[in-house]
C-alpha cells in the first residue's frame, strides 16, 4: 500500500500534477499496534494532511478520534473496522467484510450442503454469522454452523476437523467450509489441508478480505489448498483489462519494486482510493486545498467513477444501509471468483448487489 501510494504520486507529478500542483505523500506503519495507530493519526494531524488515503488498520477506535478531531477525511480504508462504516469522516470505496460474507452466503446457498463457518472468537467476529446467514437465507438455505477460533492461534487442526465433520453431515450434497479468520485464514488452511484427506466431498470458500492472489501463490498455487475454492471479492479479477492503467503505472513508476502486486487487494483498494482523491482535487480546481475543502467536496454530492472497478461512488447521509448499522457503506457490490489453475478468475460475469441481504441481516 505505501509503495503504491508513492508510485501513484510519482506518476501524477511526472504528468504535471493536478492543476499544476504536486502531490506529496507521507506514510506511517502502525505495525498492527493500537498505540502506534493512534500515533500515526496524530502525525497526520501534526503534518496538516488533507486526507488519509488507502490505509489499512484494525484499530479504527484508536486512529479515528484524532482524525475526527482535526476534520481529516479517511478515504478508501480496507473495510477492516466498523468505524469505517459509521464515522462521518470515512469515505469507504468497498463494503469490507460485511458485503463479502453476505455475498458469499447468497452465492453458495444453491450449491452447498451443510455450511460450516470458522470465524474469530471476538467482538468483530460476532457479526460474521449474521452476515453469512442473511445470504444463505436469501437463497433458501439453512443457517451455517458457527465455529469459534482464536484469532492468534498457530494451528487450527481441531477446528478444521470439526468443520469437516459438520460439512459432511448430509452425504447427499457436498458441504462447504468457510474460514473467515483474516490474516489467520492461511494458517487455518494449512491445518485444513492435513486433515481433509478423510473428507474429500467438501468445497471450500472464503472472501477477499481473508485471501487474495498473493496468498494463493504463497500457499502453492494450483497444488495448494485453495484450488477450486469460491471467493467473493470487491472488484473484478486481477486479469480483467479494467486494471490495465494500474499495471501501467506500476510498470512505469515501480517496475523494480516487488512489494507492489496488482493482484493484491490492498494495492487495488489504494489505487481506487487515490482515484477518489484525484477526482476531489480536480473538482476543487484552483481553489484552496485543505482537509476542510476535501471533506466538503466529498459531502457535496460528488460522484466518482472508477473505470468500472466499482459502481459510481457517492457518499450521502440518506443511504439505505443506515438502519442496518452501516451508514457510510455505499458500495454493496461483490464479485464471485474461483481458483482455477492457481489463479483467481471470474466465476460469473458482473457484480452482485447485496443491499437487501445486508438490510435483512440479524446482527448483534
Automatic annotation (TrEMBL):
Pfam families, sorted: Peripla_BP_6
InterPro entries associated with the record: Leu-bd (IPR028081), Peripla_BP_I (IPR028082)
Start and end residues of each Leucine-binding protein domain: 5-306
Keywords: Lipoprotein, Signal
Homology family: Belongs to the leucine-binding protein family.
Protein name, per record: Lipoprotein
Lineage: Bacteria, Bacillati, Actinomycetota, Actinomycetes, Kitasatosporales
Amino acid at each position: 500500500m505505501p509503495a503504491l501510494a508513492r508510485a501513484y504520486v510519482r506518476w501524477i507529478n511526472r504528468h504535471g500534477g493536478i492543476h499544476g500542483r504536486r502531490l506529496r505523500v507521507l506514510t506511517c506503519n502502525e505495525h498492527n499496534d493500537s498505540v502506534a495507530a493512534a500515533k500515526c493519526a496524530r502525525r497526520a494531524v501534526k503534518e496538516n494532511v488533507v486526507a488519509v488515503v488507502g490505509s489499512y488498520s484494525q484499530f479504527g477506535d484508536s486512529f479515528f478520534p484524532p482524525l475526527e478531531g482535526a476534520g481529516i477525511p479517511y478515504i478508501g480504508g480496507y473495510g477492516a473496522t466498523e468505524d469505517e462504516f459509521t464515522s462521518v469522516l470515512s469515505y469507504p470505496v468497498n463494503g469490507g467484510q460485511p458485503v463479502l460474507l453476505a455475498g458469499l452466503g447468497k452465492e453458495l446457498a444453491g450449491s452447498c450442503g451443510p455450511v460450516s463457518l470458522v470465524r474469530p472468537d471476538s467482538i468483530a467476529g460476532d457479526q460474521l454469522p449474521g452476515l453469512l446467514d442473511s445470504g444463505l437465507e436469501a437463497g433458501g438455505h439453512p443457517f451455517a454452523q458457527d465455529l469459534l477460533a482464536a484469532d492468534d492461534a498457530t494451528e487450527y487442526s481441531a477446528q478444521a476437523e470439526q468443520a469437516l465433520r459438520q460439512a459432511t453431515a448430509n452425504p447427499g450434497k457436498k458441504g462447504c467450509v468457510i474460514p473467515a479468520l483474516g490474516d489467520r485464514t492461511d494458517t487455518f488452511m494449512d491445518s485444513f489441508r492435513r486433515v481433509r484427506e478423510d473428507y474429500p466431498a467438501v468445497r471450500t470458500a472464503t472472501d477477499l478480505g481473508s485471501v487474495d492472489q498473493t496468498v494463493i501463490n504463497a500457499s502453492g498455487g494450483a497444488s495448494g489448498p485453495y484450488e477450486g475454492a469460491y471467493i467473493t471479492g470487491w472488484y473484478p479479477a486481477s486479469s480483467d483489462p479494467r486494471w490495465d492503467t494500474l499495471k501501467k503505472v506500476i510498470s512505469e513508476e515501480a517496475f523494480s519494486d516487488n512489494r507492489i502486486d496488482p493482484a493484491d487487494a490492498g494495492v487495488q483498494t489504494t489505487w481506487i482510493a487515490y482515484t477518489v482523491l484525484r477526482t476531489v482535487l480536480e473538482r476543487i480546481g484552483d481553489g484552496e486545498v485543505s482537509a476542510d475543502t476535501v471533506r466538503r467536496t466529498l459531502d457535496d454530492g460528488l460522484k466518482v467513477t472508477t473505470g468500472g472497478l466499482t459502481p459510481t461512488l457517492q457518499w450521502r447521509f440518506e443511504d439505505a444501509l443506515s438502519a442496518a448499522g452501516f451508514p457510510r457503506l455505499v458500495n454493496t457490490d461483490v464479485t464471485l471468483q474461483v481458483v482455477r489453475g492457481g489463479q483467481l478468475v471470474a466465476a460469473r460475469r458482473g457484480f452482485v448487489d447485496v443491499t437487501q441481504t445486508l438490510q435483512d441481516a440479524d446482527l448483534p
